[in-house]
Amino acid sequence: MSSHQPLDSDTVLWSADAGDRAGRPLLVLLHGYGSDERDLFGLVPHLPEEFVIAAVRAPLAPPFPTPGYSWYAIDGLESRDPVHVTASAHRLLAWTDAVAGRLGEGPGATHPAVGLLGFSQGGAVSLQAMRLDPHRFAFAVNLSGYATPGALPRDAELAEVRPPVFWGRGTHDDVIPPFLVEHTTEWLPRHVELSGRVYPGLTHSVSEQELADVRVFLEKRLADVGSAAD
């Protein structure tokens, strides 16, 4: 169990009522900088209905006049320290401890599997959370995000587990610095089972084609959960 303060459960948006969540795989949505839980929750109609979907709110308020919330600061020298990405990832782990309980089949299990879908900062936090606990999450979807530079103690363990990760980004994304894209391109294949696509002309956003590809990826993950339960 994590000793870090969890995310605010009162702000979470759910796709299903409390009585209709247990026993179904959970997909957690993590929004980007300056946004909130309502942003990615708009994707719910495009995602497989077998998932229980929870859109969480990042814990920090960015400097005025930027609206919304952030997972970590992006301005100043201190923002380059990966410890801030890790801190938010710990808070995500603490929230899944509180909400999902023990994962898997059998007594006490709330969800047979938990996956992550993050955009930009949310994608970076998703990958960081997998690195902190390689067995916690069944998969991750990283949209216009990146892998945070710097080693973590369980990276070698993650490379053995090799969870499925979808990474989608656009050729015209001018928000994520090129050195982070290069690092992620090298890092992901060495640590996860990578799939994904680079979308011509796409900016720092999500396209209809990318959503269609994400749905295919998620349907495959549902098949994985079903196979593990048999």
Automatic annotation (TrEMBL):
Limits of the Phospholipase/carboxylesterase/thioesterase domain: 20-220
Keyword set for this entry?
Hydrolase
Give the signal peptide as a residue range, or say none if absent.
none
Provide the family line.
Belongs to the AB hydrolase superfamily. AB hydrolase 2 family.
Protein's name according to its UniProt entry: Esterase
Species of provenance: Microbacterium salsuginis
